[in-house]
Amino acid sequence: MSEQTTTAATGPEPEPATAPEPTDTVTEPTETSTDTPTETTETAETAAPEATAEATPATTEVVTEDAPATAEAAPAAPAAPAAPKDRRKLFAALRWTAAVVVFATVGAGVAYGITRPERTDIPGLSTEGDGRWTFPTLSRPALPAGAPLPQGPDNEDGTHYAPLTGLLLPAPVGSKADDTVKADKDGTVPVDAFLEEYTTEERPKLKQSLEWDGLRQIAGRGWTTADGTRTHVYLLRFHSSGFVDAFKGCDSNMRLNGVSALDLDDVWSKAKNNQMNSTTLDFPGAANFDGTELSVYQELKPLLGEEQSKIGCLRTGDVLGMVIQTRKGEVAPVPFHQTVILQSQLLS
Fold first, then answer.
1. How far is CA 33 from CA 38, 165, 264, 266, 329, in A?
2. pLDDT digit string, tens, across residues 269-304
3. Are 287 and 294 in contact, with CB atoms under 8 Å apart?
């Protein structure tokens, strides 16, 4: 073992005393275990009592580094304990948790990426569109204070108290306004402008009928979509529901400009029971949808000229709705039926 010897001078060397010669202070070796070598330590604390009384001018201390610590020595720092097995399990759990979070984040990102684009843009999930149009969000106009709903229990005749122009179906997104529907700035259509939809021979009779049968107002809107389909929508408000039934300008016998004889819309007739939970009424092609009686017709084949027309008649309370679609070749059934149903929802 290594030993360090420290000599501390306590002051100038005094003159020799007349007392007996001082003797070196030597401690007896301490007995240690047989497993360790014997160490000799000379300290002030282990010196004999008589030696301390007759100390020499210079005191020599031999300090052993590996000797046991005394009360004056600083305690040694405890060694760091080894990591328990539970801590290793915790580290493993944290690693798996981090992996799960990463996979969940990636999965969420993929799911978000799938829901955002159109299905036709995603390989393996592409589905062909059915041709329906995109309309703005539909909202019914506000009723006057205290006015009942058209289908309310306190409104037996189904009178519409909302502004008629507010019940008109808006044009679909991407369409262009059709100026052949001659509406004013507020959407009101004069009677003569509405009658231009009919043949010249039909107009005088229908005009007289409208004057005698309690017509109050006509509102209309027209648009043309990118595929060339022209749509005209009219709402006719009468004094009561009885006048609506009396008007003969929207049935299988109507005579529209450029339109041949009409028949029932075969696609509508086949699908109406399943799609609309309809009940057969007492007039051809009729169905009941949310309190609105619907009659849907199509131009017979062969077509006169290059265009086909389809017409939907909607009767609800004191309002008669009329949807006319015309397109070169053939009118697509899906956007036509979509337009009829949405207009019916606004009226009911």
1. 8, 112, 118, 114, 116
2. 887 666 555 444 433 444 455 567 899 999 987 666
3. yes
What is the pLDDT, as a whole number, of residue 158?
84
- Rounded Cα gap, residues 94 and 99, in angstroms: 9
Query: In terms of Cα–Cα distance, which of 293, 295, 290, 303 is closest to 331?
Result: 303
Q: What is the largest CA-CA distance in the chain?
A: 162
CA-to-CA dists, residue 130 to 10, 229, 272, angstroms: 110, 15, 18
pTM: 0.61
**Confidence band (pLDDT; 50, 70, 90) for 29?**
very low
Residue type, 151: Q
227 CB-side CA count, 13 A? 17
Which of helix, strand or coil describes residue 320? strand
Backbone angles phi, psi at 312, to 5 degrees: -120, 130
Report DSSP letters for 175-231, one per residue. Answer: -EE-TTS---TTSB--HHHHHTTB-TTTHHHHHHHHHHTTEEEEEEEEEE-TT--EE
For residue 173, give Cα distances in angstroms to 46, 74, 220, 223, 225. Answer: 106, 87, 18, 10, 9
Instruction: Name residue 238's amino acid.
Output: F
